[in-house]
Design brief:
With 225 residues, the chain is α/β, with parallel strands linked by helices. The protein folds into 2 domains: 2-120, 3-Layer(aba) Sandwich (Rossmann fold); 127-224, Orthogonal Bundle (Arc Repressor Mutant, subunit A), CATH 1.10.10.10. The protein has helices at 10-22, 33-42, 59-68, 84-92, 105-120, 152-162, 171-179, 190-205; strands at 2-6, 26-30, 47-50, 53-54, 57-58, 74-79, 97-100, 127-129, 132-135, 140-143, 146-147, 210-215, 219-224. The strands form 4 sheets. Strands 2-1-3-6-7 form a 5-stranded parallel beta sheet, sandwiched between helices. It has a 4-stranded antiparallel beta sheet with strand order 8-9-10-11, covered by helices on one side. It has a two-stranded antiparallel ribbon with strand order 4-5. β6 (74-79), α4 (84-92) and β7 (97-100) form a beta-alpha-beta unit. It is globular. The relative contact order is 0.12. InterPro entries: CheY-like_superfamily, OmpR/PhoB-type_DNA-bd, Sig_transdc_resp-reg_receiver, WalR-like, WH-like_DNA-bd_sf. Residues 2-116 form the Response regulatory domain. The modification 4-aspartylphosphate is found at residue 51. One of its GO terms (biological process) is regulation of DNA-templated transcription.
Length: 225
């Protein structure tokens, strides 16, 4: 799961980032309007934490940009500007939640899990496809009620695809979603191929009825056999 923090206050941004990384999210940050705009134009996120008051613009304008671009990111507004008007406008522009500052990190994490679960998991705590079940809160994968042991990136790849069954995903999109925007600096994707190869073998050996199918020249998609 990949999250973008749009927050101009350095200490708060860093605290939130560290907290979410401990929860095994891929976290990217933006400290102003223009940086955030470039990121949402170039990348996709599972959730955006959005401050309204930015040094070079308004977070509400970023919400409008998301709407214009037909992006479907989950958005939680985190702002000290706790006026009813801003809250209503933010929700009308497509924000999924509004958390006034100051807040507890445990509450923020619970809100993130809630909006992701609501939009990607139909409100369910578990994700099921074929005979595979993922419990995101426990980072646990079950195949026909037997636990499947995966390393962190194998798990992240499986979670990414199982939330997008049947969708063809190219290697660049996968890399950015699972490893973050610094993936642009690597020379090749051999390490991704290795993780996918291992994941496919583990699923097959466990008797999973889902398969991460390679589509030559394009990428991969998750199918149910």
């Amino acid at each position: 799961m990949k999250i973008l923090i749009v927050e101009d206050e350095p200490s708060l941004r860093e605290v939130i980032q560290r907290s979410l990384e401990k929860e095994r999210y891929v976290v990217e940050t933006a400290n102003d309007f223009n940086t955030a705009l470039r990121k949402i134009e170039d990348y996709d996120y599972d959730c955006i934490l959005l401050d309204i008051m930015l040094p070079d613009g308004s977070g509400l304008d970023l919400l409008q940009q998301l709407k214009t671009m037909h992006k479907r990111e989950n958005v939680i507004i985190i702002s000290a500007k706790d006026s009813l008007e801003d809250k209503v406008l933010g929700l009308e522009l497509g924000a999924d939640d509004y958390l006034p500052k100051p807040f507890h990190l445990v509450e923020l994490n619970a809100r993130i899990k809630s909006v992701i679960r609501r939009h990607q998991q139909d409100g369910e705590k578990d994700i099921r496809l074929g005979n595979v079940r993922i419990e995101p809160d426990k980072f646990q994968v079950m195949v026909a009620d037997q636990e499947l042991k995966l390393n962190r990136k194998e798990y992240d790849i499986l979670l990414y695809f199982i939330n997008r069954p049947g969708r063809l995903i190219n290697k660049n999109t996968l890399a950015e979603s699972v490893w973050g925007d610094h993936i642009d600096q690597v020379d090749n994707f051999d390490f991704i191929y290795a993780q996918i190869k291992n994941l496919r073998k583990k699923l097959k050996d466990a008797g999973a009825t889902i398969e991460l199918k390679a589509v030559y020249g394009f990428g991969y998609k998750m199918i149910v056999e």
